[in-house]
Amino acid sequence: MTTRHTPTTPAASAAGTGTGTGTAPYAPEHSPRLAWAELAPDVYKAMVRLDAAARHGVDPVLLELVKIRASQLNHCAFCLDMHTKDALAAGESVERIVQLGAWEESRHFYTEKEIAAIELTEAVTVITEGFVPDEVYKRAARHFEEADLVRLIASITMINAWNRFAVTCRMVPGHYRPGGHK
């Protein structure tokens, strides 16, 4: 017999009460540190405009894969919640989303173009290694027209910026509904 964990409300978790199923409640939600979009709406709106310009003309499912991968690397739970839900709503499979964290061992789940975009995402996101390797850039350039490559790089840059705001401000995952940020 499999025991299924039933989620409790954050308030019930904080109070330490269970669900009556004999399982422990979830940990309580953390509180956000800062409502940055409300406190600096001009900054938020500028980021939204740049994000919209960056994704113009680029395959939306591919962009969700890029956003999920960058968010995994940046440990951004809020953006993982958002972009996995948006990817599913756009028709992406659960299997491909799950395998994205181990894409190098699961290459057969992705097209060469998607792999090139994922590799570029990793190189741009983990830029602390000093540069984007020529081989990674060349693979991406083979699959994207120059203007689309610029938009892809801009989209990667934008998700990294969104991740940094979300992680720093401790935005709370779990409440996003697909399409809620467009």
Task: Give a structural overview.
By secondary structure, the chain is mostly helical. Helices cover 58% and strands 0% of the residues. The protein is built from nine helices and no strands. The protein has helices spanning 10-15, 36-39, 41-55, 60-73, 77-89, 94-99, 112-125, 134-143, 146-168. Helix 7 packs across helix 8.
Number of helices: 9
In one word, what is the shape? globular
Radius of gyration: 18 Å
- In percent terms, what proportion of residues is strand? under 5%
Oligomeric composition of the shown chains:
single chain
What's the story with the biggest beta sheet? Answer: none
Mean pLDDT equals 87
User: How helical, in percent, are the residues?
Assistant: 55-70%
- SSE order, as H and E? HHHHHHHHH
Low-confidence stretches: 1-20
First-to-last CA distance: 43 Å
Secondary-structure content class = mainly alpha
| Strand count | 0
Strand and helix layout:
Elements lengths: L9 H6 L20 H4 L1 H15 L4 H14 L3 H13 L4 H6 L12 H14 L8 H10 L2 H23 L14
What key attributes describe this structure?
182 residues, mainly alpha, 9 helices, 58% helix, disordered N terminus
What's the quick description here?
The chain is mostly helical. The chain is 58% helix and 0% strand. The protein has helices at 10-15, 36-39, 41-55, 60-73, 77-89, 94-99, 112-125, 134-143, 146-168.
